[in-house]
Amino acid sequence: MPPSTVCTAKASYKKAPGLLELTxxxxxxxxxxxxxxxxxxxxxxxxxxxxxxxGAAQVRLKVGLVSDDAGHNFTFTSPQPVALSERETFxxxxxxxxxxxRSTAEPTTPKPVIAxxxxxxxxxxxPPPLRPSGxxxxxxxxxxxxxxxxxxxxxxxxxxxxxxxxxxxxxKKVLVNNPELATLHRELVxxxxxxxxxxWEGREHLLAAQAAADSQKRGRPGALVDPRPQTVxxxxxxxxxxxxxxxxxxEEFPIVAKAYNENVPKPxxxxxxxxxxxQSKLFHAHRASIxxxxxxxxxxxxxxxxxxxxxxxxxxxxxxxxxxxxxxxxDLGATQxxxxxxxxxxxxxxxxxxxxxxxxLIRKFNEHSERLLKSALGEDGPxxxxxxxxxxxxxxxxxxAQIDIEDLHDLxxxxxxxxxxxxRQRYFEGGMxxxxxxxxxxxxxxxxxxxREAKDNLHDWAGALSNLKLEKKAADASxxxxxxxxxxxxxxxxxxxxIPEGLFRQMRTCQTAANEFLRQFWSSVYPPLSDLQSANxxxxxxxxxxxxxxxxxxxxxxxxVEALVRTAHAEGIDPERVRVxxxxxxxxxDQALTxxxxxxxxxxx
Amino acid sequence: xxxxxxxxxxxxxxxxxxxxxxxxxNPHPLSLRSFLSQLLAFxxxxxxxxxxxxxxxxxxxxxKSVMLYSSTDPEADxxxxxxxxxxxxxxxxxxRVVTRIEEELESLDQSEEEAPIGxxxxxxxxxxxxxxxxxxxxxxxxxxxxxDPTTLPDPRILVLSVSPDLSTSYIPIMNSIFSxxxxxxxxxxxxxxxxxxxxxxxxxxxxxxxxxxxDRRDALLQHLIMSxxxxxxxxxxxxxxxxxxxxxxxxxxxxxxxxxxxxxCSVCLSIFCAPVPVxxxxxxxxPIKTLQRLNASRPPGLKPANGALKTAPSTxxxxxxxxxx
Lengths: 605, 325
Ligand SMILES: [Zn+2]
Ligand SMILES: [Zn+2]
Known about the structure:
The complex is a heterodimer.
Chain A: E1 5-13, E2 16-23, E3 26-31, E4 39-42, E5 46-51, E6 59-65, E7 72-76, H1 80-104, H2 165-176, H3 179-188, H4 196-200, H5 204-215, E8 230-231, E9 237-238, H6 243-252, H7 254-263, H8 270-279, H9 281-286, H10 338-342, H11 359-377, H12 384-394, H13 399-403, H14 424-443, H15 447-458, H16 461-466, H17 472-494, H18 501-525, H19 540-555, H20 557-570, H21 575-604
Antiparallel strand pairs in A: 1-2, 1-7, 2-3, 3-4, 5-6, 6-7, 8-9
Chain B: E1 5-12, H1 15-22, H2 32-49, E2 54-61, E3 64-70, H3 88-106, H4 119-134, H5 136-139, E4 154-161, H6 170-183, E5 186-191, H7 198-207, E6 211-213, H8 220-228, E7 263-264, E8 271-272, H9 288-296
Parallel strand pairs in B: 1-2, 1-4, 4-5, 5-6
Antiparallel strand pairs in B: 2-3, 7-8
Helix pairs in contact in B: 2-3, 2-8, 4-6, 6-7
The structure holds zinc ion (2 copies).
């Protein structure tokens, strides 16, 4: 079956006239008169897109590839109006594809997607094909940052609209990570009870969270490169070399990269190089711990690698001097000359190099940390973070500003908010007074009489006490009542669940489905959780339609519960127990249905 | 085995409520006299059940609250006419409690209307008292009682209530509940007469106590013994009756209507039945856009009449029937 074509246009490539085609898998161009396309780019290769200015003499489109930034230049050769609309079509399609590529791109090779074009910016009047996320600076390699600024790849995952492939992927991921939701999805959407779009309505935050999680880029691992040899029988050691490990070693120890460049493939081949490296003194000098002594016996003199051995970095002055000026507030030496004057004791706790043996290790760690920090900030090129730090540095001279710590400022303006309920008296008194005054008015109590009566009641209390006896009938009745009270709570606590699993599962299914309908119902009645979640909120008419639909589903709940009750009866389970178990659900359903009924007439007018 | 226990009993002594309670048309009328005899029997039982048990009795009178008796009060020893047929400590408690009630009733000013009951005061005093006895080292100067920290009593409060909720005391009662929670003091409530009180229901629920609505008021003593005699420690082994339904739904701050879904101020958590432009509690102004959005998407049937906020709330029903949760 030939691949179906999405769109085509007459276009020249390198001045040769031809046909540009977008199939459902490739972007391809074939020269006029030739059968096979001479350019064929799979979707996954498409990385960026540039357009010539509207009104320019030529209608051009440039496609950048993952493997080749230069990419291909096409010129649309139809008469201008046609060419423009053709290009618009390609632009739209390609933008979607690139966006999808971008969202699934391997984290290690993030490619910038157009925002501004080196040729010409995307025409005015039309919205840019992609919402540039954050300040994209395509001229520079993107900083490797943990929090990439990708929000969503084109289009809101809102209801109604067509679902893009990336949205679909997101939904799938959310369901995979969320078995309970997946079950609900299976039970409701796959059985056609509610639509896919309805299901996700009100759950946009899950998708947004997933998208955010996906767009997080893994930063460099913080561990020192320290390949651990595995001992195999015969006392040999084995180290598995992966491309990643090689990369890490070269980065961590440039000297090894140098040695590699100078000695591979001649005089050493790749395998020999690594074999000898791991047995060399050089490798053991690079180890992150003093564990090396344990494998000392395998360390051999090596005429090649020993040339690259550096002297142990354990002199008082580190081999690699920091070229930065030390900030005065963290420089311990800065106040040294004052010590005699002020009578301060000489600091003996922080003596660099007191223990010579640890110096190389400390320095190695420091260098490693520095490298890590630099890679996070984007070593090559003035990224925003770096610039910010430089800006700070320019204020270094303002010492006061440096020691002026905001947290230590006295908070002047924290009067707080006084919480004072309006008409508190009215609020609280409102209902209750009626009860009290009702009583009072019924009996017209004379306070003086009541008081006298109270006092009278105190007379001869001792006599009353010694004659105290409980009516048997009253005592028995209250004992029975209280026992029942306790018993009721005890039985619910101790009774085992003996409903058969099959029935129990049906009950659960009924419950989750009705719950979802309730959720849908109320969410179509009440305001959405926030303004942000959906770009195009449903219209009142849509909401009303949905509420009606859900009410229709809810109306069947009683039927379903009755069916469960019958099943219980058939299986010899007390049907009343099922009914009681489902009662909260049916109550909630009734509440929603009553609400729906009473509200309808208002809606109709 | 079990620790000594302390009860601070709070007596609701509103003369008019007791008058109503004793009226013969009640299903089971209960007079103050009968109440006192049964109460005294219960107090004696508490003292007798363990030598180290302690007791305090507080009276809530119209517009005032007083401590009527406490085990740590030396005054309590001055008893006149000794009854040789009675266990002496019982007599001390009984006569002291009754005498003090008499004194306090005597000093009530005889106005036309009965002043609001001093329940909050009594509750607060009880909490202060308990706080003092469970932190003896801080307060006890001379050794009136020898309290070794290991034998400190397990404290609880028992409220015997006859008055309806006093709405103005909502906030102080809630604060007392929080203090009780912090002190780990259980509040038991026995509603002897009158309608259920929401505040005391919540007090019992929130402090882990039990709330009893007294149906058979002629069997008060039976109830007290079965429900309020076992100490909190003992209740882990022995279930005591309590009320099993409490209405937790919130009432809107504007009309005191019970709402299923309300609008909550994001600053102070006040609850409203309809979106409001300004929070009436903390005066926070809400963005007009939010207000419009909330109003626009509210179900048409629920939109309030515009005057609703201004007119005094009409609340024909005090509370809806409490729903079992
Ligand atoms: Zn209201
Ligand atoms: Zn507020």
